[in-house]
Amino acid sequence: MKRAFAFVTAAVAGLLISSSANAAIVSVTSGGVADALSGQTSAFASAPGAVVYDMNSDPGFTGSPVSFVTGSLSGQYATPFGDTTQFASVGTISTPATSTLLLSGSNNYVGLYWGSIDGYNSLIVTDASGDHEVSAATFGSILNPAGGSQNADGSLYINIFSDSAITKLTFISTGKAFEFDNLTVAAVPEASTWAMMILGFLGLGFLGYRKSMKPSAFRVA
């Protein structure tokens, strides 16, 4: 618990720093290592106006064709860890592949469950200031290893915040394949405000955890 708290605290602190340093994509964070019960959907999925693409149908990709599949097929695609539903796979039918999804509205947040993240996968996020690349290198030591692991340490829920509307997502894979699911777009509070809220909730939770670990004064003989 202490390790998890320290990790998320550091991530939130990084978000606060980046929000004042950049004029475009203010933060890219990890939702943490996913498991079969949590971490595969966005915390903003129920936000007013949020749209969740569960990849049970094509949300409107253009460019290279996208496969919508379940399970794993050797040499073609692998299920994001713990995902039992249909997911999207870019780079399955043609390689290299570039598939684009246009977004409308004032959505400044994008989240997705990214499976078995490989060095040849990248996501280009386009907002008012231009294109911004997100790749395995973005997350550094968070991924262990950052080389397409099909276990829990290779899949992450990724949260991307911008200070302007995100207008386009471009999924690129030069190998087989770029797998993702539960793509969520939403208009959320300013990233630094959101970070402070999360940090506050984490602090309260950690204090409660420490209190619960103290030995009780009541004993039964």
Overview in brief:
The protein is of the alpha+beta class and 221 residues long. The protein is built from three helices and twelve strands; from the N terminus they run αβββββββββαβββα.
Per-chain topology:
Elements: H1 2-21, E1 25-33, E2 51-53, E3 62-63, E4 66-69, E5 87-90, E6 97-102, E7 109-115, E8 121-127, E9 130-135, H2 136-139, E10 156-162, E11 168-173, E12 178-186, H3 191-213
Antiparallel strand pairs: 1-10, 2-12, 3-6, 4-5, 5-12, 6-11, 7-10, 7-12, 8-9, 8-11
Helix pairs in contact: 1-3
The description of the largest β-sheet is: 7 strands, antiparallel
Radius of gyration: 19 Å
Task: Return the average pLDDT rounded to an integer.
Answer: 77
Helical residue percent band: 10-25%
CATH class call: Mainly Beta
N-to-C SSE string, H for helix and E for strand: HEEEEEEEEEHEEEH
Structural domains: how many: 1
Q: What's the count of strands?
A: 12
**Percent range for β-strand residues:** 25-35%
Give the end-to-end Cα distance, rounded to a whole number of Å. Answer: 31 Å
- Tell me, briefly, the overall form: globular
Query: Which regions are unreliable across 5 or more consecutive residues at pLDDT < 50?
Result: 1-23, 216-221
Content-based structural category: alpha+beta
SS summary, helix count: 3
Q: Supply the CATH architecture.
A: Sandwich
CATH topology (fold) name: Jelly Rolls
What does this structure look like?
This protein is of the alpha+beta class and 221 residues long. The chain has a single domain, classed as Jelly Rolls, CATH 2.60.120. It has 3 helices and 12 strands, in the order αβββββββββαβββα. It has helices at residues 2-21, 136-139, 191-213; strands spanning 25-33, 51-53, 62-63, 66-69, 87-90, 97-102, 109-115, 121-127, 130-135, 156-162, 168-173, 178-186. The strands form 2 sheets. Strands 1, 2, 4, 5, 7, 10 and 12 form a 7-stranded antiparallel β-sheet that branches. Strand 8 (121-127) and strand 9 (130-135) form a beta hairpin. Helix 1 (2-21) runs antiparallel to helix 3.
